[in-house]
Amino acid sequence: MLTHRGFSAWIVVEGKPLPEYLVAVDSSKNRVSCWIPSEEGKNFAVHWKDHGGKVDSCSFITLDGFVVPGRFLFGNGEASRQGVRTSATTERPFVFQKVDEAASEISSESPPKEIGMVTLRVKRVARVETRPANPIQELPKTLLGKRKPGDFCVGFGEEKGTDEQHPSTWSVIAHDKTVPGSKQPSTYVSFVFRYRSREFLEAQGIATELEPVCAPAVTKRAPVRRVVSLPSSMPSLDIREPPRKKTKLAMIPPLGPYSRPVQDMRRTASCKVEPKKQDGFPGRRMFTFSALTPESPWGDSGTSSPEAGFSQSSGTD
């Protein structure tokens, strides 16, 4: 598909666009050109599209120099032409042909520079008023341009039925008044398709691949996460991100005699202490009780209850 200045054009054969090679853009002339392969006996159609210019346009198709009316577009949309009318209800389709060796009559009416070309010219216009439809064209009876046997040319296939011609069309004036004194609308953009045989395009190095093979699209799959079953006694793991290794204080044994033991590592031991008769109070140098009886506090006589007979400290060691 050739695209320039808000319009596109392409050639269709059997419902498929033809490949285009060596596409060139001439900005000074608002023209885009390319090479296309032609095959003998194949009908073709010219398609074009307005990408939303919001301006009316009319088109003309030139086949080896022979001009065929195109269609109107009203600022948007797509149109096509696949033949030339022979009556109000019939037409002859465009077809690629080879020059017959028996062909002797050659017409010089077609400019040599337009031989071997299908050209679409788009003109931006302003509609003025309706007028009667264009008269039916007379098709050329001789071969256009200078050719030799075996060369390709554009011909017209067998007559067939088509949509009935509308009884009227429009008179137009130029929308872009860029050419002072011009009475006819100038060409806004043109698309040139130079058709040649497949063998010619290959021999000239124009087409290295006549039917380019598109590489299949590579679809990136999301990484597959493996789910591993863990014992119920193990803590759950976050599989989205590997856990960071942290030093767990609870797993480190006490570093010294003053370290507080972990709760799980505490052990309870019981022992039996046999009371012994001592000369002094076991808590000496801590507290002195002056009201104690001279007997040992560990004896059975006297008052042994700590709440009975305690007095205030004497203040001595």
From TrEMBL:
The record's listing under InterPro entries reads:
DUF7918 (IPR057678)
Biased composition annotated in UniProt, kind: Basic and acidic residues: 263-279
Disordered: region residues: 249-317
The DUF7918 domain sits at 9-206
Per UniProt, the ranges with Polar residues bias are: 301-317
Q: What is this protein called?
A: DUF7918 domain-containing protein
